[in-house]
Design brief:
The protein is of the alpha+beta class. It is 40% helix and 14% strand. The chain has 13 helices and 11 strands. The N and C termini lie far apart (63 Å).
């Protein structure tokens, strides 16, 4: 009798635990993942709107085919303006690819060494940045410096637009994540310092270096570095869940069309963005695809070697506490699956 009661109690506890766990399952992600795959890319792009995105731009460059553009939803939800596939978009951390390419070029040209330390370029940072004399350029590029991410400091977000002007202060206010080269942590502070190093060794803005050595050779005329360089009417609106404000007037760094990002990503992966000897350096320090996220804007830029295809996806609705980023990843994965199925037919 006691054994039967014990078994019943265990079963009740297990059932209770199962019910509780089901309550916390992110069902929206499950639904997005297991829903039947549409036959076309356009249908999948339209499906994305059902998961809370105001608008989406997709650029697909399959080798041997003209580039294709797909859109759904609104560029401006208040005006009900349809998405323009050629709108400018805030590409956020995709810009790290351009910075890493610049570092590889400068290293090949002997204007810097990957083994240079932060202290070598900025003696004034000794004492301000812990281990400044041990953190190398290579570690910065690879996110192995241990310098905290300034966006991890809650105080930074109290006035993100103003605090972006002295972002380093919000990083050094945090404890170091680990000693140099003893771990990995994605940190925007690393690339803040790399941009400063580019300017130190070239004597010009990192904007100008990227223009001269990446954008101009690739004939990219729809890539910019600040919101002040563009007409706001050309920028896709950006929204944050629960906030009515349109974030497009905010300063968040680089902007580009999906096509410009796609052309750059193709050149990065086929090596045509590099001069002889540069790609070997780049391959030893950084990746060949990237994502980006700032309030109102999330982007993914991928290259799929097996189908020789570049895919760039822009979605203009974010929620740092929700599942919007996961949903965007699920969406692009489903798009790639459709492309692969089409390729196999």
């Amino acid at each position: 009798m006691k054994n039967n009661k014990l078994k019943l109690i265990v079963r009740i506890l297990l059932l209770t635990g199962t019910v509780i766990s089901l309550f916390y399952v992110p069902w929206i992600l499950v639904k997005a993942w297991i829903s039947p795959l549409p036959e076309t890319v356009q249908a999948q792009v339209e499906d994305a709107i059902d998961y809370g995105f105001d608008g989406i731009i997709l650029y697909v460059d399959q080798a041997g085919k003209p580039p294709a553009f797909y859109t759904a939803g609104f560029d401006d939800r208040n005006k009900k303006t349809p998405v323009n596939p050629h709108s400018l978009f805030k590409i956020a951390s995709i810009s790290k690819l351009y910075v890493a390419v610049s570092i590889a070029k400068l290293a090949h040209g002997k204007q810097l060494s990957l083994d240079d330390t932060v202290a070598d370029h900025f003696p004034e940072y000794v004492g301000k940045i812990k281990f400044a004399d041990q953190i190398s350029v290579r570690m910065l590029v690879q996110h192995r410096s241990g310098i905290p991410n300034f966006t991890n400091n809650p105080a930074y977000w109290e006035n993100e637009q103003e605090n972006g002007n002295n972002a380093l202060e919000f990083a050094v206010a945090l404890p170091v994540s680990f000693e140099p080269d003893q771990g990995y942590e994605y940190s925007n502070t690393n690339y803040l310092l790399l941009r400063q190093i580019i300017e130190k060794v070239t004597g010009d803005s990192h904007h100008q270096y990227i223009k001269d050595n990446i954008l101009s050779p690739l004939h990219l005329k729809n890539t910019y570095f600040t919101i002040n360089e563009v007409n706001l009417d050309d920028v896709m609106s950006g929204y944050y869940v629960g906030i009515e404000e349109d974030f497009k007037a905010n300063e968040n760094g680089m902007l580009a069309t999906a096509q410009d990002v796609g052309i750059f990503l193709r050149a990065l992966n086929d090596g045509s963005v590099f001069e002889p000897g540069e790609q070997e350096i780049y391959s030893s320090i950084y990746v060949y695809e990237h994502g980006g996220l700032v309030p109102g804007y999330q982007s993914l830029a991928e290259y799929h070697k097996d189908i020789d295809t570049v895919v760039v996806q822009f979605t203009n609705t974010t929620n740092f506490d929700g599942y919007n980023w996961n949903l965007s990843e699920i969406n692009i994965n489903r798009i790639v699956k459709i492309l692969k199925q089409k390729k196999a037919q």
